[in-house]
Each structure stands twice: as structure tokens, then as C-alpha cells.
Amino acid sequence: MTAISSASAAFRGQDRGNRLFGPVPDVTGDRGYADDHPARVGFFTDTSVCIGCKACEVACKEWNLLPMDDAEGTVDALGLTGASYDNTGMLGANSWRHVAFVEQSRAVDLPMPTVGPPGAADGQRPLEDPPVVHPQVPASATTAEQSAPSQTASGDREIRWLMSSDVCKHCTHAACLDVCPTGSLFRTEFGTVVVQEDICNGCGYCVPACPYGVIDQRQDDGRVFKCTLCYDRLTDGLQPACASACPTESIQFGDLDALQARADQRLAALQEKGVEGARLYGRDETDGVGGAGAFFLLLDEPEVYGLPPDPVVTTRDLPAMWRSVGAGAAMVLGLIASAFVGRRR
Ligand code: SF4
Ligand code: SF4
Ligand code: SF4
């Protein structure tokens, strides 16, 4: 990932001549599809309702016939990370979905129910008291919402699990696609990014180009693989396998515009309930990749989930770099020419 922040003054999307960066109103039409192309689709993953069941991971493996592997990508190896209940580890050539398990120790109030008259002093609570809910969060909040960061009077601490099903972001500006020399990676009529494994020559240019570390080479044959957003299912009118399998609707599939509106409502509802850490990730079309086709509602900083806080399409700076190269070459040519012009006969 480039070290230059997308907030750099020179790169705030004002460079209209740079088609590798900034918002794109019609990403599919921009790739040459006719005006009547389907609406852009994507994923809204609401991590606040993810229960970490990994049904999405299994459904993806099953539908796409992906081999079993360990966290290093070794095929037919049933590896245990030994550090977490998450034994997938990360996205890879054989793991196109990965549910991150993040364990956090947070300060919370956990007063225990005890016997005593209503309103008793010194923290005594009658047995028939309603369940204890943190004062910042109303009773209607979900379990994940109740465990949001809080001040504590009792000094109690509690483990909370953050779970998030990660996947290819199907970026508006997909660097993997920009650098692919064979056309193996292409933009579909649905606005998604797909790799054609029979055309991939294994050069691996796309792997370091992806700012999220999503696309990966298979160790045995060198070709790259990643989520296709179930292109084969979309063309048959089906929704992606992972979204179908998710029991809590943490993974929501649909037209991107509708998903964005739904995500905005969900975020507003959580913030109204006092869930301070809630935020959308990949929703902003002015970010470093022009917004993502697969975006997330997180309950903490992106880094906590292993996501880059400020991803930037790695081809963004190419026009500026080529302009600098051109200016340098012109200066060298000018110096050489002046050396000849200034010589005595
Ligand atoms: S997340 Fe990476 S692999 Fe997926 S479309 Fe974006 S650049 Fe390509
Ligand atoms: S959309 Fe399809 S390929 Fe992508 S993660 Fe879900 S099941 Fe796997
Ligand atoms: S996203 Fe859905 S299917 Fe995947 S782990 Fe979370 S709850 Fe389970």
C-alpha cells in the first residue's frame, strides 16, 4: 500500500484528468457496458449482528469447490492457529471469505443480582429486578451493542467478541484490475471484479497492487484467486452463496444504492442508541478507492479488524509519476541540446 494518505492535499479527487482515482457515478458504464446494463450490486456487511458461525465461509468453500487449507494456504492441511478460535487466519487463494474473531477486554458494569428491598443501598439488588443493561444503551440494543465501550463504576471487565466476515471489496477503482496484463481480471456487467482463472498467467502483479491484501496466488500453480461475488449465481438470478447462508443477515446483498441507504439508516439507529464506535467502512465514494462495492458497518477502528484505515488504489499516483518522468526526461534532453548549441566551432 502506498504511504501517501488519500487525504494528501494534491490528491483529493480534484484531479479530473486522473481516471484511476476519485468517485465514479457509473462504474459499469465507465468500463464500456451499454446504458441498459444491470444496476451495480454489492454487499453491506453489518458486523454488529454477526455471530461468528462461519456459515458464510463454508458456503463459499462449498459452492466454489475450494480446497481445504490451513492459514498458510497449504492445501489439504487442517491447521489450527493456536491463538484464536479463528483457524482460517486471513483471506487467501482458497479462502474467499474470512470471519475475523477479535477478542477485546473492555471495562463494563456487571452488578450481580442479590436479595434485598427495591432501591436498597450499597449496590444490593432484588432478584426480581429487570436485567441489567448499561445506562448508555437502551434495552432494545443487541448483545454486541450492549458491550460497546463504556465507563465503569464497579471496575468490572468483560471480554467482548467482534466478528466480521471479510471479503474482496469489489472496489470502484480496483488496482488488481488496472495492473493485470492479460485481461484475466475484468469488471462485470454488475459492477463487480472477477478473475478468470483460465486466462491468469500467474505473473502476480495484482497481489501487491490490492490495498487490502485480498487477492492471493495458489501455491501449487501460481494463479490468483479471490471472491467472484458469485458471478455464476448472479447471471442465473441467484444471490451469492455466502449471503444466502448467513443466518443473521449480517451479509446483505443487493443493489449498491439501496444497501448504502440501508447502511446509513442502521448507522443512525446505532448512534442514536449511544453505540459510539459504530462507523461505516468503504461506504465513502471519496475515499482512496472511490468507495467499495462490499462495505461494512464496524463497531471499532478498522485496524482492530485487520483492515487498512486509509486504503488507496495503488495506481492512483501513476499519472503524477509519469508526468514527473516526462518532465525529467525533457530536462535531460534540454541539457544535452544546450551543450551542443553552446559549443564553439
Ligand atoms: S479488494 Fe483488492 S482484489 Fe478486491 S477488487 Fe479491490 S483491489 Fe481487487
Ligand atoms: S460472493 Fe460467492 S465467491 Fe464471494 S465470498 Fe460469497 S460465496 Fe464466496
Ligand atoms: S456473516 Fe453471517 S454467516 Fe458469516 S459468520 Fe457472521 S453470522 Fe455467520
Distance between the termini: 54 Å
Query: Which cofactor or ligand species appear?
Result: iron/sulfur cluster
Q: Which class do the helix and strand fractions yield?
A: alpha+beta
Quick one: biggest sheet?
Answer: 4 strands, mixed
Number of strands: 10
Flag low-confidence runs.
1-11, 119-150
Task: Set out the fold topology.
Blueprint: H1 27-30, E1 41-46, H2 55-64, E2 98-107, H3 143-146, E3 157-166, H4 175-179, E4 185-187, E5 193-195, H5 206-209, E6 216-217, E7 224-225, H6 231-234, H7 241-245, E8 251-255, H8 256-272, E9 279-281, E10 294-298, H9 318-341
Parallel strand pairs: 1-10
Antiparallel strand pairs: 1-8, 2-3, 4-5, 6-7, 9-10
The structure holds iron/sulfur cluster (SF4) (3 copies).
The site of one iron/sulfur cluster has 16 residues, from helix 2 and strand 3.
Structure description:
The protein is an alpha+beta fold. It has two domains: 27-104 and 163-314, Alpha-Beta Plaits, CATH 3.30.70; 315-345. It is 22% helix and 14% strand. It has nine helices and ten strands. The chain has helices spanning 27-30, 55-64, 143-146, 175-179, 206-209, 231-234, 241-245, 256-272, 318-341, and strands at residues 41-46, 98-107, 157-166, 185-187, 193-195, 216-217, 224-225, 251-255, 279-281, 294-298. A four-stranded mixed β-sheet has the order 8-1-10-9, covered by helices on one side. A two-stranded antiparallel ribbon has the order 2-3. Strands 4-5 form a two-stranded antiparallel ribbon. Strand 4 and strand 5 form a beta hairpin. The chain is globular, with a radius of gyration of 25 Å. Bound molecules: iron/sulfur cluster (3 copies). Residues 50-56, 99, 163, 165, 245-248, 250-251 line the site of one iron/sulfur cluster. Residues 168-171, 174-176, 193, 210, 212, 214-215, 226 line the site of one iron/sulfur cluster (SF4).
